[in-house]
Specification:
Length: about 300
Amino acid sequence: MRPLAGGVSSEIWCLDLPSGPVVAKQALAQLRVAGTWLAPVERTGFEIAWMRVADTIVPGITPRIIAASADLGVFVMEYLDPAQHRLWKQSLLDGHADPDVARAVGERLGAIHRAAATPAVRDEFDNVALFDALRLDPYLGATARAHADLADRLGAIRGSYLDHRTTLVHGDVSPKNILVGPHGPVLIDAECATWGDPSFDLAFCATHLLLKMVAVPGARDGLRTCLTTLSDGYCSATGIGPADDIWRRASDMTAALLLARVDGLSPAEYLTPESQQLVRERARLLLADPAVALEQLADSWAASLPEPTR
């Protein structure tokens, strides 16, 4: 047995069995962050359920589940060889912003959002209190407490999320949870799976692309293109047009999450103190001047960043 790195919310181990390696995962009640962040361990059941539902819609989008114990809050899944499944986050930090990967992420995410918008899925994943503990309060709530002058604005974004819960949401579509495999992107860590606003998944991914424009200045053009192809892929899978209200909501949530990745309970670990201050200042400006689409927000974000040093 050997521990696997990554994430703050679970114990994750690789077990080398005679038949080959597998991965075991168990949720933590207190997440590994500096502040107090308690989260119900029953989220494991929703993660398993998301993997089952998502795989029926897009086969291969998630690792295969081998075994699970609801009593122990543990499940075992197939091991995906890192040599064949590269972590998208690392590729982006290395400056390799492949727009085709982003498009595929948008397409697969859109396919799930479109197919899972059913009453049966709603009833299975109607866990808004759990999502509040895992996402809304640690990100939007904590940030509002740190920026009291923005509390009303952040509260309105939080309320908008609650008013537009229409499909199955992964809740953590971050490049650290996307493996680029030989058959397309694989999504992992669906602990936050819920019946929610689909714009949240788009915003969560967009936030990380924008943050990496700060962390990897030389890849800004490629990262900007990735955001466009992510949106294009999503539109092609869902039939949603570029003027749909989902893009305004995604833009608002992205602006909020940018600030949250500095002053919420889960700051982005790859930002320097100088980068954190830059993100803080620029995110506050975006919240004060809302964009109607992710691409408009990305343009404003890119234009506000200092020129890369050569």
